[in-house]
Sequence to fold (652 residues):
Amino acid sequence: MKIDYKKVVSEILSSREKSGGIDKIYFAACGGSKAELTIANFFLSCESKKVKTWIYTAKEFVLCTPKALDENSIVITLSSSGTTKETVEAAALARKTGAVSIVITGEKDSPLAANGDYVFYDGDEPKYHYSTLSLTIALKFAVELVQQVEGYPHYEEMQNGFAILDDVIGKARDYAQPGALAFAEANKNEPVIHVMASGANYNVAYTTTTCILMECQWIHSNPIHCGEFFHGPFEVTDKEVPFLILVGTGRERAMDERAVKFLNQYGKKLYILDAKEFGVDVLGAEVCEYLSPIVFTGVLSIYSHKLADARNHSVDVRRYMWHVEY
Amino acid sequence: MKIDYKKVVSEILSSREKSGGIDKIYFAACGGSKAELTIANFFLSCESKKVKTWIYTAKEFVLCTPKALDENSIVITLSSSGTTKETVEAAALARKTGAVSIVITGEKDSPLAANGDYVFYDGDEPKYHYSTLSLTIALKFAVELVQQVEGYPHYEEMQNGFAILDDVIGKARDYAQPGALAFAEANKNEPVIHVMASGANYNVAYTTTTCILMECQWIHSNPIHCGEFFHGPFEVTDKEVPFLILVGTGRERAMDERAVKFLNQYGKKLYILDAKEFGVDVLGAEVCEYLSPIVFTGVLSIYSHKLADARNHSVDVRRYMWHVEY
Fold:
C-alpha cells in the first residue's frame, strides 16, 4: 500500500492538537541510513519556522538523549533490514517518551517496525532507482509536514519534482557512465580518495566516504565539507591526492565552486560531478537544491560498481560485517 | 575586563522579554573554531528544553540560512583573528535579521568584533591552557543561559569544574607526555591516521583530524564517530592502520569502549586517550562529560607538537594559507 503522506501528517497533527502540536523532529539512524535521513533534516532546517529538526547517530540519541524530546516530537528512524540494534533502541526510546515514532524500513516484520507508530514500508513505494528510495520517503514526509504546519511556498513544484525524479535519475546515470568508468580506472590503486560536497549534498559525500570507499573498498577517505575545506583540510592538496567533488545547483554552489577553483589550480586528480550537467535543474528552480542529493545518490551507485569492477573487489565483500561479533 | 556572563545573559533575556524570549541559538564558525563551539552546542542540545541549538560552518549559515532565524535567536560566532570572512558574514547576517550577535575573538578591533552586539574578548579571561580558552567561554555562556532560562540542576557543580579546570588540564598534560612521545615516534611516517571519539568529545576528533593532522602535518585522516564506526568505516581496520581514540567519561563511554574492544581484537596500531586516566572525573560526576573535551584539547596540543618534532615538520608550516589567494 502506498504511503499516504497527507493522511499520516494530518493524523499526527490532530493527535497532538490539544497538547501543543508538533514542534520538533529528530532523525536517528546509523551510517548510510543516517546520511539518507540528513536530506530531510536539511530541508526542514532551511524551510520550517515552526518545526525544529536534528539528526543523530542512533546510539548517541539513545545515550545522550536531548531533554527536549517529548510528546510534541516526531522521531524518524531508518533501517533497511529493520534489525540495526542502535536504531531499534532509538525507536523504542521515542515511544517510551511519548514521541511519535515513524520507522522507515524494508521489512514489515522486523524489530524496528515493531517500534513504530507508523511504519513506512518502502516495498510498495515507487521504485526510485538505486538506494534513493528511503531518503525520498523521508523527504516527502518532511515536505508534507511543513506544508500542513505552516505552508511550504514551493510545495507544488516539489511534487512535480518528485513525479519526474526517477526519470531524471535514469538520465543522469546514463550521462555518468563514461565519467564513472574513467574515475574507476584512474583511481583503482589509490589508497586515499577524499570526497567533497556541501549543503543538502554533503551527506552524499559522507555516504560515498563511509559506505562506498571505506566499507566496500577499504579505501581511506574523509568527507570534507566544501565550506570547511579552506580551514584546514586543503593543506593536504597536491598533485597526488584524488578528490571527488559534488557540485550542487542551489545556494551552496558558491562553496563548491570555490573548492573546484582551488583544486584546479593546485591539485591534479580532481573528479567533478556537477549537478547541472546531470540535468538536476529540470526538477524545479526552487526545489532542485533539495532533490539533487537523490540524483547524486543514484549516480554514485554507478561510481561504486565501476570502481569495484576496476579493482576486482566486489561491493559485497566484507571482512567483519556478517562474519564476526562486534 | 572579565566577561560577566550573568549580566550579559540577563540583559539579553530582558531585551527579548516582550517579544517571546530567547528560544534558539545558532553557532557559526569555520574549521577548528567551529569545532570549539560544538561543545557548547552539545551541552545545550542535551540539557535545555527551551533553547534549541544548532551549529553551522559559517558560509553555509550565510548561504542556506534557516528560516527560523529571527529576533528570538542568539548567533554566536568565533574567530581568533576576528578576520575570517565567512564568520564575519555570519555575524553580519545575525544583526541584519535582528538576532543577538555574540562574537568571541582575540582581537577587539576586528571586522568580527564590529559585528557583535556583545564581544567576548578572550584576552582578559582566565588563561585556560592551550587553545581551550574560546571553547570554554562558549560553554560558560551556554551554562549561564540554561540556568537563567529554565534552571540547570548541576550549575554549581559546573562552576566548580570551571574553577579547577586549568589545574586538571595541567595535570593531564603532564600525564600525557610519555604517551604523546610514543605516539609521535610510532606514527611519524604514517600517511593516514584516523581519529575517533563520540559525544561532547567528537569535535576534538574533528579538530585533531582537520587542524593537527591535515592542516599542520598533511597527514590524511577521517574523524570517525564511534557510534558510526561499525556502520561502514570499521571495514578499513587491519594491523597497519593507526587509530587514535578518545574515550570519554560520560554516557558516551559505552560507544567508545565498544570501538576500543573491536580495535584491540582486529587492529594493532591503536592509541587510546582515556579521559578517566587524565583525571577528568575530578571535574564532577554530572558535568565532566561536558568538560572532558576541554581537557582533551589541552592534551592533544602536546600530541600535535610531539608529532611535529618527530616529523621535523613545524606546526607553523603551510603551503597555501598565508601564501596564496583562495
In short: The radius of gyration of chain B is 20 Å. The first strand of chain B starts at residue 24 and ends at 29. Chain B touches chain A through 72 residues (CB under 8 Å). Residues 108 and 121 of chain B are 6 Å apart (CA to CA).
